[in-house]
Amino acid sequence: MAGSPAAAVVAAALLLLLSLSACASSSAAISSSSSYPPLAPGLSLDFYKKSCPKAESIVRDFLQSAVSQNVGLAAALIRLHFHDCFVQGCDASILLDKTPAQQSEQEAVPNQTLRPAAFKAINDIRDRLDRACGARVVSCADILTLAARDSVALAGGPAYKVPLGRRDGLAPASQDAVFAALPPPSSNVTTLLSFLSKINLDAADLVALSGGHTVGIAHCGSFDDRLFPTQDPTLNQWFAGRLRLTCPVQGADNTTVNDIRTPNTFDNKYYVDLLNRQGLFTSDQDLFTDGRTKPLVTKFAVDQDAFFEQFIYSYVKMGQINVLTGASQGQIRANCSARNAGRSDDELPWSVVENVVDAAESLVL
Ligand code: HEM
């Protein structure tokens, strides 16, 4: 067979296999399709089975109607969940309004474009859950997780189970902590990976989670550094022209869609955009430039099921970052926008509880 055409074909196939496996080992590896991230201690898939059995259907019914009236709400909730989890963990601290004593996370620049409608939706769901199951049963952090999960499915993405049992944080993160945790859209892959590594997320998580940009909008200020003063050479020329119509000067207050192909549908077209150099942010487009992430971008562009599988894995993983669980951590807020007024049993340090019990016992004759 040596020297024959058949031998040449076998040799070429072997070479291709070898180069593919070398490529796979040096770049982002997809998580096993059957895998689901390990559950964080204290979380479970049926956490409210007894205390609020209708919790998931209440969230779902509310959003089904709300998203049908405002499709942008789905994108807004998906982003809100991300901005909560990356900063100080998924503790609903992003929902806390400012007080005379404390700045809120919402005031930090990266959070100023979060949509008020998303915050309102969480409080509306909170009211419905309180009426069905009593006050302070379902945490705001879990409501946000469920709302983001349902938003993905309602926009056309995959439906999946999420672990529940998070408790709500007692205080917002500082402005510095917000900046340290949320990468700017001008980041390249090296910068993005260094942000993500701090919270145990890897290159596959980065590529899949960035797929959240398959829905929603962005303001000119988030990407016009790619147009002015000089145009980013990686931008597709036609696409750049279109962006210039939306943002004629630097600092314009207009918005455009994140995914030009199917802006309101949760699908894999975001990756097709990247292949065509039509990614909106540097942080998007560099995923197709950098050799560590390019193979996965290419895979997701041609295989939506592969994207959905990795997205579920990575988004559930993201939803478990530094969660507060168990009676001793955090609290269940009565109002998602404010820490519970006064002190309540679920946040009292044990030493204080013991002192109160001791004092009460001394009163018994
Ligand atoms: C990897 C780093 C990321 C960067 C640098 C980034 C940056 C941004 C920026 C700058 C905007 C537009 C803000 C504006 O101008 O209004 C945006 C929007 C959005 N992002 Fe990201 N993002 C990242 C990751 C994620 C992740 C992990 C998700 C969720 C899985 C996500 C989901 C969204 C959504 C849905 C929108 C649209 C929100 C709306 O329409 O209200 N992003 N992102």
UniProtKB/TrEMBL annotation:
It comes from the Eukaryota. It is found in: Secreted. It catalyses: 2 a phenolic donor + H2O2 = 2 a phenolic radical donor + 2 H2O. Ca(2+) 2 binds at T214, D259, T262, D267. Disulfide bonds join C52-C133, C85-C90, C140-C336, C220-C247. Residues 42-340 form the Plant heme peroxidase family profile domain. Ca(2+) 1 binds at D84, V87, G89, D91, S93, E105. Its cofactor is heme b; Ca(2+). The active site is at H83 (proton acceptor). One of its GO terms (cellular component) is extracellular region. Binds 1 heme b (iron(II)-protoporphyrin IX) group per subunit. The record marks R79 as: Transition state stabilizer. The keyword Calcium applies. GO terms for molecular function: heme binding; lactoperoxidase activity; metal ion binding. Its EC number is 1.11.1.7. Pfam families: peroxidase. Heme b binds at H213. Substrate binds at P183. Keywords: Calcium, Disulfide bond, Glycoprotein, Heme, Hydrogen peroxide, Iron, Metal-binding, Oxidoreductase, Peroxidase, Secreted, Signal. Residues 1-28 form the signal peptide. It is an enzyme of class 1 (oxidoreductase). PANTHER family: PEROXIDASE 16-RELATED (PTHR31517:SF48), PTHR31517. Belongs to the peroxidase family. Classical plant (class III) peroxidase subfamily. Removal of H(2)O(2), oxidation of toxic reductants, biosynthesis and degradation of lignin, suberization, auxin catabolism, response to environmental stresses such as wounding, pathogen attack and oxidative stress. This is Peroxidase.
